[in-house]
From TrEMBL:
Its main location: cytoplasm. This is PTS galactosamine/N-acetylgalactosamine transporter subunit IIA. Residues 1-123 form the PTS EIIA type-4 domain. It comes from the Bacteria. GO terms for molecular function: kinase activity. PANTHER family: PTS PERMEASE-RELATED-RELATED, PTS SYSTEM MANNOSE-SPECIFIC EIIAB COMPONENT-RELATED. One of its GO terms (cellular component) is cytoplasm. The keyword NADP does not apply. It holds the Pfam family EIIA-man. It is found in: Cytoplasm. One of its GO terms (biological process) is phosphoenolpyruvate-dependent sugar phosphotransferase system.
Length: 143
């Protein structure tokens, strides 16, 4: 099983934690770390490393909120030292929930690829989809 560490600015991680718990239930080897104003970047990295050490996982995937933000950059620093760590930035709730469901039977790089696809597919223009559905219904009702 791949260990998952979700981190982001202010209450991003704790907000995602409550949503993931509601959707997927309690998750083993999944940690949520908020980067709050009272935490220094070094302290954040220490918490990330401690979370990794506490997991019984050969591979760890960091899921961070903002590309180039402190949680992403600190996770990248860890990744650069460890070939069994991967980082994905710009994550959304569909990506995080699916990470919990899809992390067995794949390696971290495969999981990252799956999550990238889910993230891309979950961005939808619903007005455009509604318009396409309406056009299809109109065509079906014609002649």
């Amino acid at each position: 099983m791949i260990g998952l560490i979700v981190s982001g600015h202010i209450n991003f991680a704790s907000g995602m934690a409550s949503a993931v718990k509601a959707i997927a239930g309690e998750q083993e080897n999944m940690v949520f770390i908020d980067f709050v104003e009272t935490l220094s970047p070094d302290e954040l990295e220490q918490q990330m490393r401690a979370a990794m050490d506490a997991m019984n996982c050969e591979q760890v995937l960091f899921l961070t909120d903002l590309p180039g933000g402190t949680p992403c950059n600190r996770a990248m620093a860890i990744m650069m030292e460890n070939q069994f760590v991967e980082v994905v930035a710009g994550v959304s709730l569909p990506m995080i929930v699916n990470a919990a469901f899809e992390r067995e039977g794949v390696d971290a790089k495969e999981l990252l690829s799956i999550l990238h696809d889910i993230g891309t597919r979950s961005i939808q223009d619903l007005r455009q989809q509604l318009a396409m559905t309406s056009e299809t219904e109109f065509e079906e009702d014609g002649l």
